[in-house]
Design goal:
mainly beta; Jelly Rolls; 2 domains; single chain; eight-stranded mixed β-sheet
Length: 351
């Protein structure tokens, strides 16, 4: 029986060939003229340096994390009293408002426009290929949001920006343009599923949704998965108590963890390598590379809550569950580090 595996190559030859010959998504974002943030982490999207974004009519930066090529993020700022240009696209998008207040109008050609108001903590999805436009309601302060899209997949498939941004087709199974309360009706909870599922097309404040126990990830952990606007992409909210941390786990690509409350840190590592530490607070975004172990630690004096924006579960290779390391099997040095970090914050560990 083989006891040790070895890689034949680091990058599949055909993947390298396609990147050398086409690389459509990377070429597209480089042509946009805004900053491209790489790596796996942004300390605070609310203060991230942005550039003028001609296509959207605001300021922005791409979050092209971990070379995942299944979902990519971006940060966008709407000027005081201003609006972004209207647009549509043949890829999915989930939006989290990081700062400010405003409104979004969504429509299909030939049908009434639907408008809803948002503020810090609002979460919504842009229905596939629907026209949409974002407005800042403040005349003195900018508004910022962070979004995750499946644009890398669309560009890999079509390699044609004109087709992606200017195709006239209505996906009415996802967004019924005649449904007046599409974005205002109350969401529905499905708690018969482990971890819970909320089906809602607009969430006014993600911090206030109901959560259900998810103790298999750690004592006191609570959770809710979110399905919006018929999307294959998803989000989930996780909360864990003061003085505790979650079990280390790993999965496929595409998860972007957006911190909402408390302070703490995340450790990330690959097999056989020492972990790297990423400190976080409200506004931080962390995106674990595919297959990398990662573990979230709360050192703050309030429960930690985050919303993770995801590529679809098939891409993340989660159909048969997520691997995790039980507390009794973890490296004892990680527990010791946590106790030391809690002491710095005046928090008593409660593991």
């Amino acid at each position: 029986m083989v006891s040790k595996a070895a890689k034949e190559f680091e990058v599949h030859p055909y993947v390298q060939f396609m990147a050398d010959r086409y690389n459509p998504y990377r070429r597209w974002i480089e042509s946009e003229g805004i900053p491209i943030v790489s790596g796996s982490y942004v300390a605070d999207v609310r203060t991230l340096e942005l550039g003028d974004w001609q296509r959207k009519g605001g300021k922005g930066a791409y979050l092209s994390f971990s070379d995942q090529l299944v979902a990519d993020g971006y940060v966008c700022e709407i000027p005081p009293g201003g609006s972004l240009k209207p647009g549509r696209q043949l890829y999915e998008e989930i939006v989290l408002i990081a700062a400010g207040r405003g409104a979004t109008t969504i429509w299909y050609d030939g049908f009434p426009k639907r408008t809803f108001e948002w503020e810090r903590g609002s979460l919504f999805a842009i229905p596939l290929n629907a026209w949409h436009q974002h407005f800042n309601a403040s005349g003195s302060e900018p508004a910022r949001y962070v979004a995750l899209t499946s644009a890398p997949v669309a560009f890999e498939l079509y390699r044609d920006p004109e087709f992606i941004f200017d195709t006239n087709y209505m996906f009415k199974d996802r967004f019924n343009p005649e449904e007046e309360d599409f974005f205002t009706k109350e969401g529905k909870y499905y708690t018969e599923y482990y971890g819970g599922i909320l089906h809602s097309n607009f969430i006014a404040d993600i911090r206030k949704i109901n959560l259900v126990p998810r103790d298999k990830r750690g004592k006191g952990t609570r959770n809710m998965y979110i399905h919006m606007a018929g999307s294959a992409m998803l989000a989930h909210v996780s909360q864990f108590p003061v003085g505790r941390y979650k079990k280390a786990h790993r999965h496929g690509p595409g998860a972007h963890v957006c911190l909402l409350d408390s302070t703490g840190y995340t450790l990330m590592w690959n097999e056989g390598e020492p972990p790297k530490k990423y400190d976080w607070h409200e506004g931080s975004v962390i995106s674990p590379p595919a297959g990398a172990w990662h573990q979230h630690y709360n050192t703050g004096k309030v429960p930690c809550k985050f919303v993770a924006l995801h590529a679809n579960t098939a891409v993340q290779r989660e159909e048969r569950g997520v691997e995790q390391i039980e507390f009794e099997d973890e490296d004892t040095a990680m527990r010791k580090m946590y106790e030391e970090e809690c002491a710095k914050s005046g928090v008593k560990p409660d593991m």
